[in-house]
């Protein structure tokens, strides 16, 4: 099953950089990266130490409902290109494992799909989950902090 990983839309990144509201209705906070552990949700690379960044609330769901989780995320303060590579993005090589959860087209968690997955198995498990018609996407989150990192969809 060919899959691809998505970043936040470029329009969203531009709006946040311009001071637009995040998922909580607040402007992003400005900060300076202290190095690894600050993954940009647009280019899906870590923000280098000393680089300006934004911290914002993200809710990667189209509508509000009980499963629409909100959490913190990072973004390069300066423009960066959206992720468009083949395979898992660079930020998925930074940790030994990640939390993957499958979702239905209605944005509901498909119980039984959530699993802590070794970084080398992320693409394979996401592809397995997306092989049938039951799921619309798989979210990849930090296994340590539950922060949303990227979404896997059918290619």
Automatic annotation (TrEMBL):
InterPro entries found in the cross-reference section: DUF1203
Region (Disordered): 16-38
UniProt cross-references to Pfam families, sorted A to Z: DUF1203 (PF06718)
Superkingdom of origin: Bacteria
Protein name: Uncharacterized protein DUF1203
């Amino acid at each position: 099953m060919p899959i691809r990983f998505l970043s936040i839309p470029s329009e969203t990144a531009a709006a946040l950089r311009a001071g637009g509201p995040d998922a909580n209705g607040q402007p992003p906070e400005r900060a300076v990266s202290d190095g690894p552990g600050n993954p940009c949700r647009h280019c899906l690379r870590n923000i280098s130490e000393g680089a300006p960044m934004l911290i914002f609330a993200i809710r990667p769901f189209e509508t509000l409902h009980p499963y629409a989780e909100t959490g913190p995320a990072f973004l390069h303060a300066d423009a960066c290109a959206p992720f468009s590579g083949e395979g898992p993005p660079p930020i998925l090589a930074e940790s030994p494992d990640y939390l993957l959860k499958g979702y239905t087209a209605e944005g509901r968690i498909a119980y039984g799909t959530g699993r802590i997955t070794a970084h080398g198995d992320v693409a394979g498990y996401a592809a397995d989950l997306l092989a049938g018609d039951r799921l619309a996407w798989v979210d990849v989150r930090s296994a340590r902090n539950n922060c949303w990192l990227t979404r896997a969809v059918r290619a």
